[in-house]
Amino acid sequence: SAVISQKPSRDICQRGTSLTIQCQVDSQVTMMFWYRQQPGQSLTLIATANQGSEATYESGFVIDKFPISRPNLTFSTLTVSNMSPEDSSIYLCSVSGTTYNEQFFGPGTRLTVL
Amino acid sequence: GNSVTQMEGPVTLSEEAFLTINCTYTATGYPSLFWYVQYPGEGLQLLLKATKADDKGSNKGFEATYRKETTSFHLEKGSVQVSDSAVYFCALSENTGGFKTIFGAGTRLFVKA
Question: What pLDDT does residue B97 have?
């Protein structure tokens, strides 16, 4: 299994600002994903981060609001832009196992927007 | 489209009680099925998985059997402990142009000493 770290672990931000979340994996992986987990809710996939090409966004999520970078096979960033209180959530990075079935998650970034 | 439905929580049990959390799914093909667990303040961890019909996944005393005829993957444990208190997510993954995972809503379990 992969070991995944995220930074920051939590942050409190002001409305209208942006926050970049980093995800680091201890081994090279093909597929990385970003999820949002709103308080008391399940996980919603934001996008798949593709190495060397643009991220693939799910319905309801756009690149201008959630730009993603994937410069190599062990690292990705998610930026939450022009934040509003509705963006207050836990943001989770994950990677797929070698069989592309199971997923391994980072510890999450807890974001509060005031 | 694909979906996962699991029983609503919270579920409150006494220590050593029997646990069942129901999960049913809809899928167009032959998905892999998973249970993930999220302990307070942590990210999700894979608890167990089953990749084809009649497979039984097991880990830490938890079990779930992939039932294609009833499209179900119920989670069971014979004797829960206080340390099992967490949120449990049923999920499926199917390769339909990408290995996306779809999660159920989650079931919160409280175990009392």
Answer: 57
